[in-house]
């Protein structure tokens, strides 16, 4: 009986230490997830700003081409090369 109690106490201690390790790793993973979410939001905003800038530069280029050569109705898009779809 005493041996069984000793074994159960030993198993209990082992399980407690494993549980503490898992709790620590869970907290670490949650903080990592939060930092990754922040990074994702930051990069998404940067991407949106760059796409907006590209669209405005393309529009400005189109206007400048029309002003310099009024015989051309629509400038070709192959010179630009980059067309970004609008992100909703």
UniProtKB/TrEMBL annotation:
Residues 61-88 are annotated as: Disordered. GO terms for molecular function: syntaxin binding. Residues 61-77 have a biased composition (Basic and acidic residues). Belongs to the taxilin family. This is Uncharacterized protein. It comes from Colocasia esculenta.
């Amino acid at each position: 009986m005493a041996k069984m109690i000793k074994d159960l106490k030993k198993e209990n201690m082992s399980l407690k230490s494993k549980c503490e390790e898992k709790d620590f790793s869970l907290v670490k993973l949650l903080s990592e997830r939060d930092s990754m979410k922040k990074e994702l939001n930051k990069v998404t905003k940067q991407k949106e700003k760059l796409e907006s800038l590209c669209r405005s530069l393309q529009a400005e280029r189109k206007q400048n081409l029309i002003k310099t050569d009024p015989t051309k109705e629509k400038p070709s898009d192959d010179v630009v090369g980059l067309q970004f779809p609008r992100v909703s």
